[in-house]
Amino acid sequence: MSLATYLKSKLIPADIDKHINRIRKPIGSLGYDPWGYNNEAIKYGFALTRQIYEKYFRVEAHGVEQVPAEGPVLIIANHSGQLPIDGLLIGYALASRPEQPRIPRAMIERFFPTVPWLGNLLNEMGAVLGDPVNCAKMLANNEAVIVFPEGIRGSGKLYKDRYQLKRFGNGFMHLAMKYNAPIVPVGVVGCEETIPAIANIKPLAKALGIPYAPVALPAVLPAKVHLNFGAPMYFDNTEIPEELVTERVETVKAEISRLIDKGLSERKKLF
Amino acid sequence: MTTPKRPHILVTGAAGALAQQVIDQLRDTCDLVAVDFREQVYLGDDIPSYCIDFNKRVFEDLFRRYQFDGVIHLGRIQSSQLTRMRRYNANVLGTQKLLDLSHKYGIKRVVVLSTYHVYGAVAYNPALIDESAPLKAAGLSADLVDSVELENLANIYLWRYPDLNITILRPCNIVGPGVRNTMSTLLASERAPVLAGFSPMMQFIHIDDMADAIVLAYKKPVRGVFNVAPQDWVAYQHALRLCGCKRIPIPSIPPIVPSLILRTLNMRRFPSYLMAFFKYPVVIDGRAFAREFNFKPRRPLQEIFRFYRNNKSPV
Predict the structure, then answer these.
(1) Residue B199 with chain A: CB contacts under 8 Å
(2) Which of A186, B94, B147, B245 has the highest Cβ tally under 10 A?
(3) Is the complex ipTM more than 0.90?
């Protein structure tokens, strides 16, 4: 038995192996898709995330069955907590659902591909550079795509601004309309408390070429996370002026806000 | 009953393995003339073969003598060959001469081989780049300018002289027996450099499949620009592993470090101007070509890599 096979047998329980193989992804002969997703690598990621999801953040996910089982879907959520932990947890919730699991693709910040090891690792787990062309091609490929329309405005916000939604970009709505993709809103509660930041050192971020440099504890706190998936929202593909697109974006934003409030009211304590 | 006239085709870049494959496929049905500016190659008694610089006046004599119907231009000098200046002369000015002569002598079909390098490897590249994407290579390195210029030129002629029926092919990495380009040399070597922490997605096409694609393209006069790539993908470092190459990591951050190292080492098989291609993916979408020309690559990646694993000697 080679070392790789031995490690795999130790690290990946048989049920995960079977579960991932059951989800049919459009991949090439060596297990990769054009964006770098790798069917073998994701098994390690899945096994590790299971521990983080179940033991560390003790996630409670409600309504994950509302994500359609096939066809293009946009999963739109609020972004928070400096690191893209929310994307990871939403992805795991959908990939691990017992009925008709899907491995969604998360759109990530543009600076990740320039980071050695991490960029490739994220790609292998299904994360993709947050480019509108990428998102369009993936929806055309019938993928479920996780988008945080707040971008770094959301993930980089300080603890004092927690659970306040920042401006949503309109890009996701245009894509949803063009590709006839339903939008599933998700309210994430708990990730704001994982890395509470009190300030952002902008000159340092600029010098390092990173989106923001938070002043925070050098640890990820084990806050309990609540994910609330809403019912799919459908938008037709009629030619409408940008103001009306913004209005549609606002309805999605309002729904996410409602789901966040639901999560906050369900939450008994922070940790 | 008269037998139909066999088409007369000029094939450039005849010394290369790809051109020879194309010639082998066409020689039974067409009258071929082979030229290469590097060396004169013997291709059998039935195929006249010349060593000519396109920019010399004698090149026109070939057009006068043979009355070509079509041109298959595979003679693009790769970025690893010659100096920048000579490459520019051969690739850009030489191609212009070739296209001018093609127009003057009423040629009806031109296939030009370009490369996916013209898209340029940038961190912000989306995957499945289609033919209308901007060509960013010129901004990356002056060594890739001639490749982009060659394409621009061919594009201008494509629209200005529709009778030439120009098709430009942008293939992914062409690999396989006899191929001498950078990627093939890397896969064939015992030890191959990698940028630590970067393993971009890549696409490979077997030389036989590429020859099929060129012949298919030649036979169907559809003008335009097409990517040529199979619907299969692999990460660079994984490809090296499958080829049995030992990976030698080169420090990759800050970006100036690998660039300095590569410039100092000046390796032909890992040149500094291609560094970005070993860092960021350039995944092209070959579906338009496959649809239009009914093209299906037949050699899977596993077979390509098996060849390199079993033939670990300088190609």
Answers:
(1) 120
(2) A186
(3) no
